[in-house]
Give the backbone structure.
Amino acid sequence: VPEVEGLTVRVVSSAARVLQVLPCFRDFFKQGNYPGEFPYKSKAILLFQKNEGVDVCLFAMYVQEYGSASPSPNQRHVYLAYIDSVKYFRPEIKSASGEALRTFVYHEILIGYLDYCKKQGFVSCSIWACPSTKRDDYVLYCHPTAQKMPRSDKLRSWYQNLIKKAVREGVVVERNTLYDFFLQPTSECKAVISAACLPYCENDFWPGEAEKLLEKKDDDTSQKNDIQAGRALRVAKRDDRKGNPEDIFLEKR
């Protein structure tokens, strides 16, 4: 990168892990032979810049790589679990494209990683684009006071610009949302659509939220809740999509 010195990317951790499926979700899909666990490789990748003779960590990404040995729906899928940065990148100038030079560098690291994954045989990658809240640190526990947390729309725009670059470079061939890709019926066919099709990744928002909804479903005993649940289930049964009405009900919630 012109005018930038002392940058080093390091893989500081690479460990084999096994994700256990949470009990309510596993029981809900037991008739479909849903897997009980997903093996994956967890990696921590950091960017450093030498500043006054000291290596300073600027950017961190934690990834989960679910290879061929991992069953569907996670097979050959990569999950970007956490991305974080501190605003110590030097120099603080704009790139030729008009964006901050640090953004250009962070995008290049991510595109390079996606290209590596593609060459390794992975076919998809997902991230839950959600900014952290105050007192909720993702990777780095301390940020400069001048560094602002991005709003949701700005963060999504940051990732969308990244993907546009990756598409132009031929690394990414398609982009979508998890909901549109997995849970929306197409006009050509009404295939069976199930919440079991969504990637199920460690510490992702979706598995935790699905587990809470299924626990609540089991715990709801009041008449009011029974009436509301019954009404919603009747709506799900009239849904054009093929599949288990209770499964569609879970997706709608």
